[in-house]
Design a protein that fits this description.
The chain is built from five helices and two strands. A two-stranded antiparallel sheet has the order 1-2. Strand 1 and strand 2 form a beta hairpin. The protein folds into two domains: about 60 residues, no CATH class; about 60 residues, no CATH class. The termini are far apart. It is of the alpha+beta class. Helix 3 packs across helix 4.
């Protein structure tokens, strides 16, 4: 059974082993299991950011999506290229960026990428029966 509780991000730092995320948990929300587990216990985590209206934030990792679609043969065909490397180059060209990692912060590139993905996903292939 998964432990569920609400927490607030208080700090984020980096040390030699990785990032250290500090969360504040209200005493009424903190599961006893967390209090009893030893320091160093490992957890598998899934976090959802909560909006003011209590709804979950939807994340869109465009860098990850770009990496995934550049490996798809149909995307190569759509972009009229032969392989993943050429697909990545063409994608960057169309989005006006030098690297797919720029999809994290470049608002214009994000929109161009979203439009390109929408066009790709709605593209009708000649041999597609639908």
């Amino acid at each position: 059974m998964a432990l569920q509780f609400e927490a607030r991000k208080v700090a984020l730092k980096q040390d030699r082993t990785g990032f250290v995320l500090t969360l504040a948990i209200h005493p009424d929300e903190c599961p006893e299991e967390i209090l009893r587990d030893f320091v160093g216990a490992r957890y598998g985590c899934a976090l959802v950011r909560i909006q003011d209206d209590e709804s979950a934030t939807q994340y869109n990792n465009r860098v990850q999506k770009a990496g995934m679609i550049c490996r798809e043969q149909k995307f190569h065909d759509f972009m009229e290229v032969d392989n993943e490397t050429e697909a990545a180059v063409e994608l960057c060209k169309r989005c006006g960026i030098e690297s797919r990692t720029e999809l994290h912060g470049n608002e214009v590139a994000k929109q161009l990428f979203d439009d390109l993905v929408k066009e790709y996903e709605s593209f009708r292939w000649p041999d597609d029966p639908f």
